[in-house]
Design brief:
mainly alpha
Length: about 1200
């Protein structure tokens, strides 16, 4: 049953799981449903997820293409009936464009050469497609190139219909232009375009010119016209001309590729002349595209000249099967056995070789007499030079061309080509030349053109290439070489008989197993795995459980570098011990000295795992070698050696031989310190590694052996070093030191308590961090520790001494200490500590401190969110011992209110974390360390689980069921973060989440915990976001929620004055004043300011804002203040004072502010009847004729004149 479940799981991971979603979207496109750009982008992202495995969509791709082609057919037909430049025409064109965009994405994912074969090809579609292409050509709408591409690809399929074009063209019965002329002109037009449209046009024109009913007329015409034009453009540097040149060569390549040899031989002189004409330009061009199309055309020209024949000297092997390979020898008890049927195979090969030589001697003269040697040599040199090209696509094309041409050559010429390719493996050649040579070798091997006697010299080169890696600057090159090498081995195993590779299999096997486990690139590991699979299946090699090994190293597992190392690597070493030495040697010699830290970490873990399997064999090799590297001159080598020793200590039992090296291991920290190797480059990483080593020593070595049988006082050495590192400025060093201290059984907790209140910021940070992981705090010190941590959550009065990192670590440690020691607290102590934690959490959740780096208070809020969630999970099952239900409920409501506010925080990270905590409180899932408030009936009522499931499925782009009862928080939030992070923090956040949050709680609960006030404060924070998009969307949501949720608008407006009062012109007090200003101005634009609610507060709000803005020089903030004043003029009680303030701003030093103040003053005077002298023509004329961007001195006179005219006094100073 377990096997069945595992197989089912693998199948679930390897099918077109988004088929229903994509199909539904295609139907929407076909039906003309309006699709926004965001939805199109999201569906395209989902479809592009199958680019690496396009065959997974094969079962559905035909249906998807038919659906989309139906949409193209309907909309293009409708388009032909509409008048140009009308709204209906552009609307139809837009719908056609949407369908074409997604059809293009489908072609791209599956590959145009495969997808085009699945396009419908009925005769009635021929004329509409031609007419639609003609229409698009006439309107020349370049932004709709997707439509042109799809129509051209459809036309290329329709041109394969076996009917004469005249029989499908109704224009032959009239005087209209025939379809043949239209298609020809369309092809000539579109091959001058760039990108995918030109490729589609070349395919259309190539298939058109190869049709028997048009070839005699149009091919000579095309050759004549294109040759004449190319003659004029041969020296042109114009970019548009280069598009035409590429299009012509691409078209001719398509024409020649369809193989009507006798016809093309008539025009061979034209083809040769074109090759010679563009020889200099193509070979010296910087455009890889021109070199590529020129090389493709040259290859096809050469293949026309060489007679098609199957060479007798070509290598052939007898038919074989996996069943035959296995049944030859059966399974044995040996873990790895090589067997072969070498005699029969060698006899067969020798017989083939003799026959090939006899046949070859007969054909050499005939070959020389029927082939133009000059052209053949020219094209072959082009291909061999193309193998050395720096462009990858060109090397692939050149290697394929070499294989195709060599397949038609006699043996002596082919052998010369192979020898030349093998000479490319020189240390003087760059890495891309090696890559091209490997591709050519693979191509020759697949075609049987690389004879067995050439394999021996190649094997050492190939084994070296399998691990080729060279550091160039700050990056490594060579991944393409390793990938191509695996491809070569795959070709060898697939092509040659069992006996040909027998002597090389042990060496190849070692290298392949290593490559598929430890290579850094995903494509190289997968290529090595595929090659190994071919070897097991075809080379008569039997592994015990060999199929299991292939399944263990499948496409998905080796795709993850960590799983490839730790699962596949450990599996191989455990089940095939003969490869242990290979793995250990490679890890020690290469991976542990690699400059990539991620690879070094994985190598350390893999080496430790191997040591755990075979300690008696591996430790005598590994530990002495690592000791020699501890003092290496390279910092990263020292660091990796120390980390490796620490990992081995944790992985290997003490009595497995490690005790022999005990004192050498114990001396490492003091040795590093004595030689001053902590200093200089890489010193921080070495300190971190030493902390890890000490942690491993504390964890694994017996205390009495470590500290009481030695003359050296290691206890003092280690404690002093850890205390120094705990106060180090680097956070990673402090964390590693804290972990070591946390499991140290002899550490004195009093030394940490004294450091919490230290003036040294690094010391206080480290002390607070250490208590988060400290395992054994004496009961007599517990109360003092909690009090000191609580004090650390309060900023000192001295602003320069405030440190957000200390506060962040203190709140986390405070929560963890209280939670860990709940059972040891008395009733009085527990109630007191719970009150302290609750107060500290509330303080930290309202921390908006900022410095030169920005709003660093968000890190404190994040830490408090996590800590609060943990605190209440633990407290829910223990509070009854310390307090009443109502008291606990009061503390919990305080946290929930803060949580509701932070759900609408403008920082994405805080918002995402707040949502996670929200779900952890309102959902039920099974886990021992967690809880659900449903169980206690404290605040939240049971929501409709079905509706919540339905809601989550509706917003999740993947069709996967989500169950609230099965670890809901972990599953849901993990999916959001990994697959839906753009959605969760993107444009749809406020529209979806805010109504859900409000409606998830019933009216009684909302009223009881004042959740509306918390949500309103969160909205005000979001309205003050630095992101204009975030602020505008928050305002849009306000409009939506205020109309749907009763009392929301009242609660929001009631929060404005408290929000302004909590703001400050200093960063450390609370939210920025900008958020409140933007809240008022944006809500006013949406007519949300209810003056009946604000009439008593509006004047106080304006005065408070003026006090907070005293000395403000931020123009954007002042502009928002002008908008607030404009909105406040609607209040009769505040009109005179607000009017005087607004008039005062017309003399502001900033021109933008003066202009906006004047415009808003004019609008208010014409709109509000309660303003003084409403409708006065003189004032209206003054406001209309004043140039508000005059110099400040002139505007002061206008300000005085306006105050006198309105009859009001200047605004009082604040």
């Amino acid at each position: 049953m377990d096997v069945l479940n595992s197989v089912t799981e693998k199948v679930a991971l390897s099918h077109f799981e988004h088929c229903g979603q994509i199909t539904a979207f295609c139907y929407r496109l076909r039906d003309g449903v309006e699709i926004d750009a965001y939805s199109m982008q999201m569906q395209s992202i989902v479809l592009n997820g199958y680019l690496e495995q396009p065959t997974l969509i094969d079962d559905a791709v035909r249906d998807l293409i038919n659906i989309l082609i139906e949409g193209v057919r309907n909309f293009s037909t409708e388009l032909l009936t509409l008048e140009k430049d009308t709204d209906d025409f552009h609307s139809c064109l837009k719908r056609l464009h949407n369908v074409s965009i997604f059809l293009f994405e489908l072609f791209k994912v599956r590959g145009p050469e495969v997808a085009v074969k699945l396009v419908p090809h009925q005769v009635p579609d021929f004329e509409p497609v031609v007419a639609a292409c003609t229409l698009l050509k006439e309107i020349d709408v370049n932004q709709y190139w997707h439509i042109e591409y799809c129509l051209l690809m459809w036309m290329s399929t329709l041109l394969l219909l076996p009917f004469d074009l005249d029989s499908m063209d109704t224009a032959t019965e009239t005087d209209e232009t025939h379809a043949t002329d239209i298609i020809y002109e369309l092809g000539l037009t579109y091959i001058s375009r760039s990108g995918a449209v030109r490729n589609a046009a070349a395919l259309v024109l190539g298939r058109f010119l190869n049709r028997g009913d048009v070839l005699p007329v149009y091919l000579p015409r095309f050759l004549k016209e294109s040759t004449e034009k190319l003659t004029e453009l041969v020296s042109s540097d114009n970019r548009s001309d280069s598009f035409y040149i590429n299009g012509v060569f691409d078209t001719l390549t398509t024409v020649l590729n369809l193989r009507q040899t006798k016809v093309h031989l008539k025009h061979i002189d034209t083809y040769v002349n074109l090759l010679k004409m563009f020889e200099d330009r193509a070979l010296n061009s910087k455009s890889s595209l021109l070199r590529k199309v020129y090389l493709g055309f040259a290859q096809e020209t050469a293949l026309i000249l060489i007679p098609a024949q199957k060479p007798q000297w070509q290598y052939k092997k007898e038919a074989s099967s996996l069943f035959d390979n296995i049944s030859i020898q059966g399974f044995t008890d040996e873990p790895f056995v090589y067997t072969t049927n070498a005699e029969s195979s060698n006899t067969s090969v020798q017989t083939q070789a003799r026959a090939a030589e006899d046949e070859d001697e007969l054909n050499d003269d005939d070959f020389a007499g029927c082939v133009n040697g000059e052209i053949l040599e020219f094209v072959l040199c082009l291909c061999l030079d193309g193998i050395k090209d720096s462009d990858t696509d060109l090397r692939v094309l050149a290697s394929a061309g070499v294989g195709r041409i060599v397949q038609r050559l006699p043996k002596f010429l082919a052998d010369e080509v192979v020898a030349f390719i093998m000479s490319m493996f020189s240390s003087f050649e760059p890495e891309y030349v090696w890559h091209g040579a490997l591709l050519a070798i693979a191509e020759l091997a697949i075609r049987g053109l690389l004879l067995p006697h050439r394999i021996g010299p190649l094997i050492p080169i190939i084994c070296d290439c399998l691990f080729f890696e060279k550091l160039v600057g700050k990056r490594y090159v060579g991944s393409n070489i390793r990938d191509a090498t695996a491809y070569v081995l795959w070709a060898f195993f697939r092509t040659y008989a069992n006996g040909e590779l027998q002597e090389y299999l042990p060496l190849i096997t070692d290298r392949l197993l290593l490559a598929m486990c430890v290579d850094r690139e995903i494509n190289c590991r997968r290529a090595a795995s595929a090659a190994f699979q071919e070897m097991v299946g075809r080379q008569t090699v039997t592994f015990v459980d060999g199929i299991d090994l292939i399944q263990k190293a499948d496409y998905f597992i080796v795709g993850n570098v960590t799983r490839a190392h730790m699962e596949v690597g450990i599996y191989i070493c455990k089940n095939y011990p003969q490869y242990v030495n290979t793995f250990v040697s490679y890890l020690l010699d290469s991976r542990l000295e690699h400059t990539d830290p991620k690879l070094r970490e994985l190598a350390v873990e893999l080496l430790a795992g191997i040591c755990n399997l075979y300690p008696d064999v591996v430790l005598p090799i590994t530990i002495p070698e690592l000791f020699t590297r501890v003092t290496n001159h390279e910092p990263f080598v020292r660091c990796t050696a120390i980390s490796s020793i620490a990992a081995i200590i944790r992985a290997v039992p003490f009595k497995s031989g490690l005790e022999q090296h005990l004192w050498n291991i114990m001396d490492i920290p003091s040795t590093i310190d004595d030689q001053r190797l902590f200093r200089g480059r890489g010193g921080a990483k070495i300190r971190e590694a030493i902390n890890t080593l000490m942690e491993a020593i504390f964890m694994m070595f017996p205390i009495e052996l470590t500290f009481y049988t030695s003359k050296v006082d290691y206890k003092k050495i280690y404690v002093d070093m850890l205390m120094y590192h705990l106060g180090y400025p680097d956070e990673a060093i402090r964390e590693s030191a804290a972990k070591a201290i946390g499991i140290c059984s002899f550490f004195d907790v009093n030394t940490l308590i004294d450091r919490i209140s230290s003036e040294n910021v690094s010391h206080s940070r480290g002390a607070c961090l250490a208590f988060r992981v400290f395992k054994d705090i004496p009961h007599e010190c517990l109360s003092e520790v909690i009090q000191e941590l609580y004090k650390a959550t309060i900023y000192p009065e001295n602003k320069d001494a405030r440190d957000y990192e200390t506060k962040k670590q203190a709140i986390q440690s405070l929560v963890y200490v209280v939670c860990d020691y709940f059972d040891k607290l008395t009733e009085h102590e527990g109630a007191e500590q719970i009150a302290l934690v609750s107060e500290a959490l509330h303080r930290c959740l309202n921390d908006y401190i900022a410095d030169s780096r920005g709003g660093v208070g968000r890190f404190v809020r994040q830490a408090a969110l996590k800590a609060g969630c943990v605190f209440y999970r633990v407290l829910v099952s223990k509070y009854s011992k310390f307090m009443s239900h109502d008291q606990f409920k009061e503390y919990l409501m305080l946290y929930v209110n803060d949580l509701m506010r932070l759900i609408f925080e403008w920082y994405d990270s805080v918002r995402d974390l707040a949502i996670t905590c929200f779900f952890s409180l309102i959902t039920k899932y099974e886990k021992k360390t967690t809880f659900s408030l449903f169980d206690t009936d404290l605040i939240f009522t049971n929501p409709d689980v079905f509706k919540m499931d339905k809601f989550l499925l509706s917003i999740c782009p993947h069709d996967v069921s989500i169950h609230l009862s099965d670890k809901f928080v972990e599953v849901t939030m993990d999916r959001f973060k990994k697959q839906n992070s753009l959605w969760i923090i993107g444009k749809s956040f406020y529209e979806v989440w805010s109504p859900f949050i409000v409606n998830a709680l019933d009216a009684k609960v909302r009223e009881e915990i004042d959740i509306l006030d918390s949500l309103c404060m969160g909205f005000i924070n979001s309205l003050g976001s630095h992101s204009e998009t975030c602020a505008n969307r928050a305002a849009d949501v306000c409009y939506t929620i205020f109309n749907e949720v009763e009392g929301m608008s009242t609660a929001f407006l009631n929060c404005l004055l408290p929000a302004v009062q909590n703001c400050g012109n200093e960063y450390d007090k609370s939210n920025d004043i900008h958020s409140c200003l933007r809240a008022i101005s944006l809500l006013n634009k949406r007519s949300l300011l209810n003056q009946d609610i604000l009439k008593d507060d509006i004047i106080e709000i304006v005065r408070e804002i003026r006090r907070k803005m005293k000395g403000c020089r931020n123009i954007s903030v002042i502009l928002e203040f002008v908008e607030v004043l404009s909105a406040s003029l609607a209040s009769e009680t505040a009109s005179n004072e607000v009017l005087s303030v607004l008039i005062g701003l017309v003399a502001c030093p900033y021109a933008k502010v003066r202009k906006l103040a004047g415009e808003r003053l004019l609008m208010a005077f014409m709109a509000h009847k309660h303003l003084p002298r409403f409708g006065d023509a003189d004032i209206e004329m003054l406001l209309l004729t004043t140039d508000w961007i005059r110099p400040t001195e002139e505007m002061k006179e206008i300000r005085t004149k306006l105050l006198e005219t309105f009859g009001i006094s200047p605004a009082p100073r604040v």
